[in-house]
């Protein structure tokens, strides 16, 4: 006797409905991609550099444009452009955009973060096309901020549009959007902004769309970030400049002392040689030296530095870089002994080490190794802690499933050598939230460099990933107990 077919239960019906939602989301994202790219190009044309030497009016214009895009989704209860103080002083930070929609029917709240400010363009002659004239060549969009991070902004906007269009009146997911206006200038008002807007930003899941992917075909979830320590180091040996012919050979000039001191920071193989800086012992994927050479643009004959697997050197070990120097220029050099030289130092701190602890170790090293009794001054210090993602939460499983479905390839869990110091502030204010670090970049993006670009296929898949995840979370109880 043949058994009658089983009647689908509620969970089965929801899975079938979710599959239909997935299909509708995919279709909408595909059809809306030209509009998403067009909106991105309009944002990119606004030169929203948040550094003090640039016109703040452009950052304000950018914030207003982002707020308009979020209002036009029709999803949010409120959308505001607001500022927060920098520390305890009267100075205000750059304008940020804050949007909020309350959760309904016991659904979770997701906070979507990106930043609308960009790095300075650098020299125009280093760009193949004008930095604020978005240009498509092949499958890439070239412009300053095209990837970092206005594509992150638009990935949020486009995924929200897809969610609203497909889910409609059944949208119960809580949504907050925080689009910062000064990430490239150190997020100076970030902590104050969180404290002032704690209730509006509170969420079960926080998505930080400011990282990269393994390549243009393989998605990545960033699970480890190095911290950072930056400061100015000034070395002095003379009260005033002295004639190099009259005193050279007997009197140490500041440049000699600085060069000797900086060389003490590294071993002969280029690895960091500062006692007290630690490494993080984590498994890393294999990467060839050839890939490193290509991605980093190493010149022929120049060798990599450090020891161990290549990605462990970038993700799990400290690094120290001199990023700037104040000294007489070659064109204006006179035959004198320099009395004083200053450099800017950037140190990346391995996951697992406190950034202040790392700074203490570096400062101690510099003072103990100053040659010839040179005077050492350290100031303009900024620190940001590293971060390790807890990958055991349900949100990690959801975003990895969405990545696999959107990209057609399983995602990798990766670290990055860069830093997002404000994540430590997010953890401090929202310790129970699950933090997901995603992004729209790839190894050829050249963020912060001339000819920055966005791969348009990656952009589409990033939008689809987020839209699928949001649609699925719209059917999830806040306690993670499962679908209705």
Layout of strands and helices, then pairs:
Elements: H1 10-44, H2 56-72, E1 78-82, E2 96-101, E3 109-115, E4 135-137, E5 140-142, H3 150-167, E6 174-180, H4 190-196, H5 198-201, E7 205-212, E8 220-225, E9 227-236, E10 242-243, H6 244-247, H7 254-263, H8 289-296, H9 310-315, E11 319-326, E12 336-337, E13 340-349, H10 355-368, E14 375-384, E15 387-388, H11 394-407, E16 412-416, H12 422-429, E17 434-441, E18 453-455, H13 456-473
Describe this structure in words.
It is a single chain. This protein is an alpha+beta fold and 484 residues long. It has two domains: 11-225 and 386-473, Aminopeptidase, CATH 3.40.630.10; 227-280 and 317-384, 2-Layer Sandwich (Alpha-Beta Plaits), CATH 3.30.70.360. 34% of the residues lie in helices and 22% in strands. It contains 13 helices and 18 strands. The protein starts with 9 loop residues before the first helix and ends in an 11-residue tail after the last helix. The model is unreliable at 1-8 and 480-484 (pLDDT under 50).
How many helices? The count is 13
**Rough outline:** elongated
Shape-level CATH architecture of the largest domain: 3-Layer(aba) Sandwich
**What is the CATH homologous superfamily assignment of the largest domain?**
Zn peptidases
| Portion in helices | 25-40%
Strand line-up in the sheet with most strands:
1-2-6-3-7-17
Percent of residues in β-strands: 15-25%
| Rg from alpha-carbon coordinates | 25 Å
Q: Got a strand count?
A: 18
Q: Report the CATH C-level class of the largest domain.
A: Alpha Beta
Largest sheet: 6 strands, mixed
Low-confidence stretches: 1-8, 480-484
Mean of residue pLDDT values: 93
Q: List the domain count as a whole number.
A: 2
Q: In terms of structural class, how would the helical and strand content be classed? A: alpha+beta
What name does CATH use for the topology of the largest domain?
A: Aminopeptidase
Q: How far apart lie the N and C ends? A: 35 Å
């Amino acid at each position: 006797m043949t058994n009658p077919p089983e009647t689908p239960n509620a969970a089965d019906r929801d899975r079938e409905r979710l599959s239909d939602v997935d299909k509708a989301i995919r279709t909408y994202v595909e059809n809306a991609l030209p509009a998403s790219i067009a909106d991105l190009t309009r944002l990119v044309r606004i030169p929203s550099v948040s550094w003090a030497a640039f016109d703040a009016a452009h950052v304000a214009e950018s914030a207003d444009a982002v707020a308009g895009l979020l209002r036009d989704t029709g999803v949010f209860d409120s959308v505001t452009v607001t500022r927060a103080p920098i520390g305890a002083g009267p100075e205000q930070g750059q304008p940020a955009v804050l949007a909020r929609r309350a959760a309904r029917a016991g659904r979770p709240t997701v906070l979507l973060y990106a930043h609308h400010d960009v790095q300075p363009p650098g020299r125009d002659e280093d760009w193949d096309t004008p930095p604020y004239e978005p240009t498509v060549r092949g499958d890439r969009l070239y412009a300053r901020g095209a990837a970092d991070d206005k594509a992150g902004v638009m990935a949020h906007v486009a995924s929200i549009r897809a969610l609203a269009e497909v889910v409609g009146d059944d949208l119960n997911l809580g949504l907050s959007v925080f689009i910062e206006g000064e990430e490239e200038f150190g997020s100076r008002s970030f902590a104050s902004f969180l404290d002032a807007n704690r209730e509006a930003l509170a969420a079960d899941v926080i998505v930080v769309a400011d990282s990269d992917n393994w390549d243009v075909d393989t998605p990545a979830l960033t699970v480890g970030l190095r911290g950072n320590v930056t400061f100015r180091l000034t070395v002095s040996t003379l009260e005033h400049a002295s004639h190099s012919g009259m005193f050279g050979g007997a009197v140490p000039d500041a440049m000699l002392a600085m060069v000797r001191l900086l060389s003490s920071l590294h071993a002969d193989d280029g690895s960091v040689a500062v006692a007290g800086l630690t490494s993080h012992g984590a498994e890393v994927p294999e990467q060839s030296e050839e890939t490193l050479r290509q991605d980093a643009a190493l010149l022929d004959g120049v060798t990599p530095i450090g020891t161990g697997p290549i990605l462990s050197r970038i993700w799990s070990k400290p690094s120290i870089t001199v990023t700037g120097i104040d000294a007489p220029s070659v064109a204006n050099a006179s035959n004198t002994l320099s009395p004083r030289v200053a450099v800017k130092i950037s140190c990346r701190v391995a996951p697992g080490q406190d950034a202040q602890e790392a700074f203490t170790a570096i400062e101690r090293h510099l003072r103990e190794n100053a040659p010839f009794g040179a005077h050492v001054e350290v100031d303009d210090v900024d620190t940001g802690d590293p971060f390790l993602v807890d990958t055991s939460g349900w949100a990690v499983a959801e975003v990895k499933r969405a990545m696999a479905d959107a990209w057609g390839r399983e995602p990798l869990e990766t670290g990055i050598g860069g830093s997002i110091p404000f994540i430590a502030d997010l953890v401090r204010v929202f310790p129970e939230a699950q933090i997901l670090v995603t992004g729209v970049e790839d190894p050829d993006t050249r963020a912060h460099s001339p000819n920055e670009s966005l791969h348009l296929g990656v952009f589409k898949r990033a939008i689809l990933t987020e839209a699928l995840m949001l649609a699925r979370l719209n059917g999830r109880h806040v306690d993670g107990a499962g679908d209705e």
